[in-house]
Structure formats: C-alpha cells, structure tokens
Amino acid sequence: MNIRYMRYFVVLAELQHFSRTADKLNVTQPSLTRGIQRLEQLVGGKLFDRDSKNIAITKLGLLVLVHCQQILQQDDALQKDLDLFHGVNQLEIKIGASPIPSNSIVGPIMGQFLHAFPSMSVDLRVTHWEDLSQQLLQGELDLFVAETRSTDLAQNQLFTTIDMAPFRVIFCARPSHPLAQLPRLFLPSFRDYPLAVPRHLPCKVAEQFEDLFMLARDDFAGLVRFDQFHAIKGAMFDSDLIALTPEIAVREELKRGTLIRLVPQSMPEFEARFSVVSLAGCQVSQSINTFTRFLLQRVDMLSLETELV
Hints:
Keywords: DNA-binding, Transcription, Transcription regulation. By secondary structure, this protein is of the alpha/beta class. It has helices at 3-15, 18-25, 29-43, 59-85, 99-106, 110-116, 129-137, 203-206, 229-233, 251-256, 286-308, and strands at residues 48-50, 55-57, 92-97, 121-126, 143-147, 159-163, 167-173, 195-198, 223-226, 242-246, 260-262, 271-272, 274-279.
C-alpha cells in the first residue's frame, strides 16, 4: 500500500472534511479524492459514506484506520531514527511531564537547555502519566517525566526508565492551622479537616491511610482531588485545607514559612520517585541526551538541598 494514501486517509478520518484535509496536507482536492479512491480499491470497499455535505467513516474504514495509524507511526519512527543515524539536525523536541515535576524539575531547566541549543523548539505537554505513556507510544513525545515507583511504567518492556533521586511525600498546611498547635499529632485528627490529594494517587499509597481519603466515611470533612497542585496551593494559606504532596512541590513555601509540614505519629513512610521515560530501543539524539542530563543534574541539586535542610 502507498504510505501517502494512508496518510491522506488518516487525516481525512480525523477532520472528516475534504477541503480542510487537502489544506492540511497541502494537496489539491482532486489528488486527495483519487488517493482515497485508490486506497478503497486496494482494501476492497468503501472507507467513507459521503453525501454532498457530510462524510462518515464506515466499519471497514474503522478497521483499516487502526492499521494505517500503526503503520504511519512506525514509518515516522523509522524516518526519525534514520535522521538521527545520518546526523540530520533535530529542530524540535517533544517533552511530557506530570504536573509536579513539570513545575519543580522540567520547567526550571528550560532556559539552560535553550542556551545550549538556541535553535531548538521545545513542545512541553503536562498531563498525568497514563496520557503521557499513550502519547509516547504514539510517537507524540520523545520522553516524559513522571512518578514510576507507584505505577507500572518501570515494569513495562516498551519503555526505558532512568530513575531520579526520590522525594519524600508529606502533609502540609498553613502555619496557623489548628493541628499545628497540638503537642503531638495523630492521623485520626486529620479526619476533622478538608484534605487535598492527587487525583491519580496510586491505590497502594491510598490503602496505607485506610479510609482517610474516602468520600463515604461517616466523619467526612471535605476532599479536593487535584491534577495541578499549584491550582489549590493558594487556598491553603487562608483555610484549614491539608494537602498530601511530594515535598518538592512546596519546598519554597516551607522555606518562607508560608506553609509547614505536619508530621503525625505513625505516618506511613513513602517517597515519590520520578523517572525519565522513553521508548525502549529507539535512537536518542544529542539534544535529548543533553535534556536528560540537565534533568538529572536538577534533581541531584534538589536532593542535596534536602540533605542540607
């Protein structure tokens, strides 16, 4: 099959509009139509039902679409690896990160990286690790940074992971929080106050706190599930909200004293371990190697600061 016709088909399936598809592919509409017709002849049936105004993909089209997407991803990956092998300059890197490392680890090295590669463009995408892993598999990312100890990323043979130094996970609140005034603190006391936890808190972590983060408990006092911790951090300064988060997310606030760490007796000890995740077996460019080195240096520096505190 012709790769060009498959690309026509995949884009048309996405946009469902001949004129917009032709514009995006920079081809004429007659060329696009001939390409789709030729592909339909090769697969033995109609890929789209179409009238004067609308088009809709057929059942056969859905079947063919899955395979065409996979073939095009492999073709793009091959072309990328060939470019790397032959030393073709890379103009853009595509980086993903879950919210906390995006703010604390990835963002702060951008200036350093662009100083080393001033002609490089960086596409930074921030979402949770499940989305990032799918984007990486689909060829939409070169690498991403996310928590791997509490996920299955490190065990997935499709990925290569480079572990970073861990950061402890803590409870934090405003300095004038009622719990901060107690001489000794116990986890059951947290049940009387609203809590904030990551939306994608791994089950194995949540289970260590029994039903503390469950909506159905009898003494429920409010719960915020967040994707972006930065979005709820401001609410903690003038409320009784208590947040569970990696220490790195609130380090500056802890230094300034605008937030404090709450340390209950018998607090389950666990750490967030972020890793650099990339596709196994893929060629890696100099720019990606350099970006990874800057990430590791950033984490080493942050870890050293933790030891000095």
